[in-house]
C-alpha cells in the first residue's frame, strides 16, 4: 500500500478517494486540530464529546465546514491556523471529528480518552504523497503531548510554539511588505525599514529593534497627538507582578514601558479590567492572540522572548530548601 501511495498518488486519489479523504482528515486532525479540540482549549468542542458537538450540529454540516474554513469570532482560527491545508482536507478533518461523536453516541460508555493520541509519531512519519505541502510542515504535537515528555520525540520540542505564525522575511521594503500599495509612486518614496532602523538600539527578536531602549535613549520621539506636536503621554510607573505556578519566573507587567507608547484606553477595559489579579491570563490565551498576545507577537516583541515578561525570580520559599536552586 505504501509503495503505490508514493508512486501513484494521483491514481490513488482517483480510485481510493474516499479512503484517502478519511486518512487525510485524521492526519490533519492529529497535526493541526487536536491541539485545541482534544482537550477543549479556549472552548473548542472536544473530540468524541457528544455534548460539546450536539448543539453545533443543528445548522448542518455545511455550516461547520464554513466555520472550519473561515474561522469564527469565538476563537476557531481559519483552517485551525494551518493555511497550507487544502479545503478538502479541512472538511475531511471536520468529518473525522463528527464521526467521533457519532461513534461515541452509539456507545456512550466509551471514554473520551479513546480519542487518538495527538501527533502519534508513526502518523507524522507516514509518507504523505497526496499532500506534499502538509508533509513538509512542522511536525505536529499537541500542548498535551509536548508537556508529557515521556514518549515525546525530539522533533516535538518546539511544538509549544506551533501556534505562532512562521517568521516571514524580516523588514521587507515598503513595496514588498504587503501593507503598502506596490504600484503607488508614494510607496517608493518611503524609507526602507532596514535603513531607517540602522541607528536604533538592537534586540534579538521581532524586527530586531529594542524600541523600549530607543525611547529611553531618546533616539526616537514618537508623537503622542496627531494635531498637537507638544502633547505628552500620561506615563504611570506601576508594576504588576503575576505569580506563575511552576518553575517559570514570575511575570512583571510594567505600566511605564507601555504607557510611553499607549493610551490607557488601548488596554482598559477592553483587554484588561484595571485591577490587579482580576484578569485570568495564561500562555494558551497569549498564544491564541488574546490578553498580552493582542500585541506581543504582532506589534510588540514576540512571545519567544520569555525572559522579558518572566523577569522576576521566584522568592525563596522554605519548603524548597532542599531542592536545588532554580535560576
Ligand atoms: C487554536 C485552537 C483551535 C484549533 C487549532 C482548531 N480549532 Fe476548531 N475551534 C476552536 C474553538 C475555540 C472553537 C469554538 C468556536 C466557536 O464556538 O465559534 C472551535 C470550533 C470548531 C468547529 C465548530 C464551529 C461552529 O461553528 O460550531 C469546527 C467544525 C472546528 N472547530 C473545526 C476545526 C478543524 C477541522 C480544525 C483543524 C483543521 C480546528 N478546528 C482547529 C479552536 C481551534
Ligand atoms: C498594555 C496594556 C495596558 C495599558 C496601556 C495600561 N494598563 Fe493598566 N493594567 C494592565 C494590566 C495587564 C493590569 C493588571 C491586571 C491584572 O493583574 O489582572 C493593569 C492594572 C491596572 C490597575 C490596577 C492596579 C492594582 O493594583 O489593582 C490600574 C489602576 C491601572 N492598570 C491603570 C492604568 C492607567 C491609568 C493606564 C494609562 C495611564 C493604564 N493602566 C494603561 C495593562 C495596561
Ligand atoms: C496594547 C498592546 C500591548 C499589550 C496588550 C501588552 N503589551 Fe507589552 N508592550 C507593548 C509595546 C508596544 C511595548 C514596547 C515595544 C516592545 O518592547 O516591543 C511593550 C513592552 C513590554 C515590556 C517591556 C520590555 C522591555 O524591554 O522593557 C514588557 C515586559 C511587556 N511588554 C510585557 C507585557 C505583558 C506581560 C502583557 C500582558 C499582561 C503585555 N505586555 C501586554 C504592547 C502591549
Ligand atoms: C508577553 C509576555 C509573555 C511572554 C513573552 C511569555 N509569557 Fe509566559 N506568561 C505570561 C503571563 C502574563 C502569564 C500568566 C501569569 C498568571 O498566571 O497570571 C504567563 C504564564 C506562563 C506559564 C504558566 C502556565 C500558564 O499557561 O499560565 C508558563 C509555563 C509560561 N508562561 C511559560 C512561558 C514560556 C516558556 C515563554 C517563552 C516561550 C513565555 N511564557 C513567554 C506572559 C508572557
Total helix count?
15
Based on DSSP secondary structure assignment, what is the total number of beta strands? Answer: 2
What is the name of the CATH topology of the largest domain? Cytochrome Bc1 Complex, Chain D, domain 2
How many domains? The number is: 3
Radius of gyration (CA) equals 24 Å
Low-confidence stretches: 1-17, 108-162
Helical content band:
25-40%
CATH class of the largest domain, named: Mainly Alpha
Strand percentage: under 5%
Spatial ordering of strands, largest sheet: 1-2
Could you tell me which ligands this complex binds, including any ions or cofactors?
A: heme C
- End-to-end span in angstroms? 52 Å
The CATH homologous superfamily of the largest domain:
Cytochrome c-like domain
Order of helices and strands: HHHHHHHHHHHHEEHHH
Could you say which overall geometry the principal axes of the C-alpha atoms support? globular
Which features would summarize this protein structure in a list?
327 residues, disordered N terminus, two-stranded antiparallel sheet, 2% strand, 2 strands, binds heme C, 3 domains, Cytochrome C3, mainly alpha
Structure description:
There is one protein chain. This protein has 3 domains: 2-161, Cytochrome c-like domain (Cytochrome Bc1 Complex, Chain D, domain 2), CATH 1.10.760.10; 164-189, no CATH class; 199-315, Cytochrome C3 (Alpha-Beta Complex), CATH 3.90.10. The protein is built from 15 helices and 2 strands. It has helices spanning 2-7, 9-15, 17-37, 50-57, 61-70, 87-106, 121-125, 132-136, 143-147, 185-189, 193-197, 211-216, 255-259, 283-287, 306-309, and strands at 239-242, 251-254. A two-stranded antiparallel ribbon has the order 1-2. A hairpin with an 8-residue loop joins β1 (239-242) and β2. α2 (9-15) crosses α3. The termini are far apart. The structure holds heme C (4 copies).
